[in-house]
Each structure stands twice: as C-alpha cells, then as structure tokens.
Amino acid sequence: MIATGTPAPDFTLPDSEGRMVSLSSFRGKKVLLVFYPGDDTPVCTAQLCDYRNNVSEFTRRGIEVLGLSADSSESHKSFAGRHQLPFTLLSDSEKEVATAYGAIGFLGMSQRAYVLIDEEGTVQLAYSDFLPITYQPMKDLLLKIDEA
C-alpha cells in the first residue's frame, strides 16, 4: 500500500454516469478511497451497504467517499442504484489507480483496501485486507480514521 505521509497521486476516472471525476477536485476536503474487487459480489455488497448504512459517520467527519473497482461505469450505475449507494463509484478499468496506490492483489485484482487523504492531498491512512473474503467493519474503520 501507499505510504502514509506521501502525496496522494492524482487521477481522473469516469463515475457511474460517465462523468470524469478527478481527485484534485476534492482538494480542501478529506477523501476516503475505497478499493474493492467487484460490483455485486457478496462481500463487496455487504461492505458498501455497511458504509451506506453509516454514511452519516463519514459526513460528520467531513469525509467524501469514493468507491473504486475495475468494473465499468454501467456496472457501477446498476450496482449503486440497486443498493442505493449514496457515494460516487469510479471505474478504474485499467487498474492504474489501484496500482498507483498499491491496492492490486496477487491475482491482479483490486484488493479490498482504503486510503484516507487529507484536505491538502496527503495520505493519512492506508489499509488493505490480505484476504478478499472479509472487510473492515465500519466501527473498526472509523476507529482507524479517528486515530489518523
């Protein structure tokens, strides 16, 4: 994973509507990048729905959430709509962003990982789950965020 204290690499990716979204457009806000293996998989769905159910905790901390996987914008649109996800999903189809952040697993898939970036664009926290069959529960994620 990318080291804490380092500048977060900028990127521009399409969202679920095909609009291009750049990390730099969030300068002045905290951003949580949530890397996940794929839409509509059991663990990813549980993870993102857990974050959806607790989105007020991110809002209270002034954190914008961006979900990233290699799935297409169309897949993200369907997935977000079906599960009423209130945050932006970005299509990293070439896995360039996952690679830049060190979030590629041994099978070439995006790991289940997250990176907290501060208002100035510096990495404050980086974490990845070794096994893609589990995810960091919201309460544990918030503890790590609050400690960062």
Brief sketch in words of this structure:
With about 150 residues, the chain is an alpha/beta fold. It is built from five helices and seven strands; from the N terminus they run βββααβαβαββα.
What report would you give on this structure?
The active site is at 44 (cysteine sulfenic acid (-soh) intermediate). Monomer. This protein is of the alpha/beta class. The chain has one domain (27-147): Glutaredoxin (3-Layer(aba) Sandwich). It contains five helices and seven strands. The protein has helices at residues 42-53, 55-60, 73-83, 96-100, 138-147, and strands at residues 12-14, 20-22, 30-35, 63-69, 88-91, 113-117, 123-128. The protein has a five-stranded mixed sheet with strand order 5-4-3-6-7. It has a two-stranded antiparallel sheet with strand order 1-2. Strand 1 and strand 2 (20-22) form a beta hairpin.
Write the layout of secondary structure elements.
Elements: E1 12-14, E2 20-22, E3 30-35, H1 42-53, H2 55-60, E4 63-69, H3 73-83, E5 88-91, H4 96-100, E6 113-117, E7 123-128, H5 138-147
Parallel strand pairs: 3-4, 4-5
Antiparallel strand pairs: 1-2, 3-6, 6-7
